[in-house]
Amino acid sequence: MYREEYGHYSWILDKDMRLMIYGHSGMPLLCFPTQNSMANNYEDFGMIDQLADFIEEGRIQLFAVDSVDAESWSLKEGDKEWRAARQEQYFHYITDEVIPFMRSRNDQVPAVTGFSMGANHALITFLRRPDLFCGVIGLSGVYDSDYFFDGWMNGTLYESSPERFLPQMPADHPYIRLYNERRIILCCGQGAWEEDSLRTLKYLESVFREKGIHAWCDFWGYDVNHDWPWWYKQMRYFLPYMLGDQ
């Protein structure tokens, strides 16, 4: 399997960042790591091995990125305005630096994915820039900025809070048409450590329905917990749909 580690300096974040690339061709997948993790997260926890057949057959090419969660969503004692601003910088790092790099390596339109906090980033990025992606797979996200910011909000954080901005989106907003031309797949279990994922996904499902947005919100069983072995199964289940096989 083709594997490359790409290090670079981000002018937006003013720090060194890394990407890991897996595969030589296929649908590019922008992959966000779990909370506070880095670009090697998927490899370290076995997801690359689980998807090896898709990768080696040239069906998908993964671009896994570093996070700055420790400076934004996870920094509970930090200044909230600074944390929100750091998340906004990270969003623009992805759209203004990572996406152009991905295009330089693969000219297909990418999808975006992530698990746990990575699912939050995937959905935020997709909903804010549906023009950049063909779809999103988010697994076990907690789509609620209040959960991380203790109810605090400002205009910057609002932009990264789908549970806030999506209900306010006008019915004739052009993004709704774009959403419905893409594939939106969000899933969580109903087992251990999935309570907040379940709560927030059920709320988003009601918002999607109200707005006429066609999203597949899938709720797996009471034995399905917030952990990698279930994300392996869910990715293998949903990837064929994202690839147009189903």
Give structural notes.
With 246 residues, this protein is α/β, with parallel strands linked by helices. The protein has one domain: Alpha/Beta hydrolase fold, catalytic domain (Rossmann fold, 3-Layer(aba) Sandwich), CATH 3.40.50. The protein has helices spanning 41-44, 47-50, 52-56, 80-105, 117-128, 145-149, 155-158, 162-165, 174-181, 195-211, 228-242; strands at 3-10, 15-22, 27-32, 60-65, 111-115, 135-139, 183-188, 216-219. It has an eight-stranded mixed β-sheet with strand order 1-2-4-3-5-6-7-8, sandwiched between helices. α5 (117-128) links the parallel β5 and β6. The two termini are 26 Å apart.
At a glance:
This protein is α/β, with parallel strands linked by helices and 246 residues long. It is 42% helix and 20% strand. It has helices spanning 41-44, 47-50, 52-56, 80-105, 117-128, 145-149, 155-158, 162-165, 174-181, 195-211, 228-242, and strands spanning 3-10, 15-22, 27-32, 60-65, 111-115, 135-139, 183-188, 216-219.
Question: Key terms for this structure?
Answer:
single chain, 246 residues, alpha/beta
CATH topology: Rossmann fold
Structurally, how many domains make up the residues?
1
Distance between the termini: 26 Å
Helices, by number, come to 11
Q: What's the CATH H-level superfamily name?
A: Alpha/Beta hydrolase fold, catalytic domain
The poorly predicted ranges are none
Spatial arrangement of strands, main beta sheet:
1-2-4-3-5-6-7-8
The sequence of SSEs as H and E is: EEEHHHEHEHEHHHHEHEH
Class per helix and strand makeup: alpha/beta
CATH level-two architecture: 3-Layer(aba) Sandwich
Helix content: 40-55%
Q: Major sheet: size, sense and barrel closure?
A: 8 strands, mixed
Taken from the alpha-carbon principal axes, the silhouette is globular
CATH class: Alpha Beta
Mean pLDDT: 97
Calculate Rg over CA atoms.
17 Å
State which percent range the strand residues make up. 15-25%
How many runs of DSSP E, i.e. beta strands?
Answer: 8
